[in-house]
Design a protein that fits this description.
alpha/beta; 323 residues; Nucleotidyltransferase, domain 5
């Protein structure tokens, strides 16, 4: 019986470069991470260093897959990433393929995370689904007919950047009222600080020892779990903001399942239950249609590296990869 094929998956973000040795079943054999440097030449060297560290002692490495924040085109060029200054029209795939001598695939990190979920995670076997990551921003992968939607240029499913409120808070991309500015993990922290500063969240202020500027989403979760009414009100408001975006996506794409990833998933139904309630209260024709189930994603913080590696293996094997 032949040994499983192996790839290195790499997840590149604003703070870290995380790499993992992954086999074709999605199992992580080992991992290595470094801090993200700034300019592209330094970033390239860091990525190649992670790959070389992981391939040491491996008899045969079949491919490299990379998931990166930002706008990644069909050729693996990263045109723009708001939170990674080093990515401005950078030919990442070609550069890494040359440096490693291996077949290399590069895609948006939300797409690779979605790929992990449809291959080995919460959406396995599902042909139409949406995977949403609530973190510093909002990432998303839209799966239609078993394939991850990429669009004409590879830039599809930038779901965090559709406008919910034209006079809403400023997004990191410079536009007002984007879903990311209203429903990301960072947005929850901002909402909590604003409520505390206005005297509307005494339980959060108490947990932060009177320091408004240190309040974040963790304070909200802890206070809400303890039953504080002000924190529970914030949870409900935040869940509404998330749900309104999910409603818009569901009305457009008609998924059978929506998987939610990110740190908030660790709080279980504290956030998911009000998201589901607001979602059902606003989706078109809720009483006349099958509505998508909203569930936690399964792959955790390794989703990006696992999905990147599996995608690279599928493409290196000339398989009809769903992405």
């Amino acid at each position: 019986m032949s040994s499983p094929r192996i790839a290195v998956g790499v997840d590149i973000g604003g703070t870290k470069v995380l790499g993992a040795l992954v086999d074709e079943t999605g199992a992580v054999l080992r991992e290595h991470r470094v801090l993200s440097p700034g300019p592209w030449p330094d970033m390239r060297d860091a990525i190649v260093g992670v790959i070389n560290e992981l391939r040491t002692g491996v008899p045969e490495l079949h491919a490299v897959g990379v998931g990166a924040a930002g706008m990644v085109d069909l050729d693996g060029v990263i045109h723009y990433a708001p939170n990674v200054p080093g990515f401005r029209r950078v030919p990442v795939r070609a550069s890494l393929a040359e440096a490693t001598g291996l077949p290399t695939t590069v895609d948006n990190d939300a797409n690779t995370a979605a790929y992990a979920e449809i291959r080995v995670g919460a959406a396995r076997g599902v042909r139409d689904a949406i995977v949403i990551t609530l973190g510093t921003g909002i990432g998303g992968g839209v799966i239609l007919g078993g394939r991850v939607l990429r669009g004409a240029n590879g830039f599809a499913a930038e779901v965090g950047h559709f406008q919910i409120d034209p006079v809403g808070p400023m997004c990191a991309c410079g536009e007002l009222g984007h879903w990311e500015a209203m429903a990301s993990g960072n947005a929850l922290g901002r909402m909590a600080r604003e409520a505390a500063a206005a005297g509307e969240a005494p339980s959060l202020l108490e947990r932060a020892h009177g320091k408004v500027d240190v309040i974040d989403g963790h304070h909200v979760s802890a206070a809400a779990h303890a039953g504080a009414a002000d924190a529970l009100a914030l949870v409900d408001h935040y869940a509404f903001n998330v749900a309104i975006g999910l409603v818009g996506l569901a009305n457009i794409f008609d998924p059978s399942l929506i998987a939610i990833a990110g740190g908030l998933v660790n709080d279980g139904d504290l956030f998911l239950e009000p998201m589901r309630r607001h979602f059902l209260g606003h989706i078109e024709g809720a009483q006349y249609r099958p509505t998508p189930e909203i569930i936690p994603a399964e792959m955790g913080e390794r989703a990006g590296v696992i999905g990147a590696a599996l995608l690279a293996l599928d493409r290196a094997n000339d398989a009809a990869a769903p992405l």
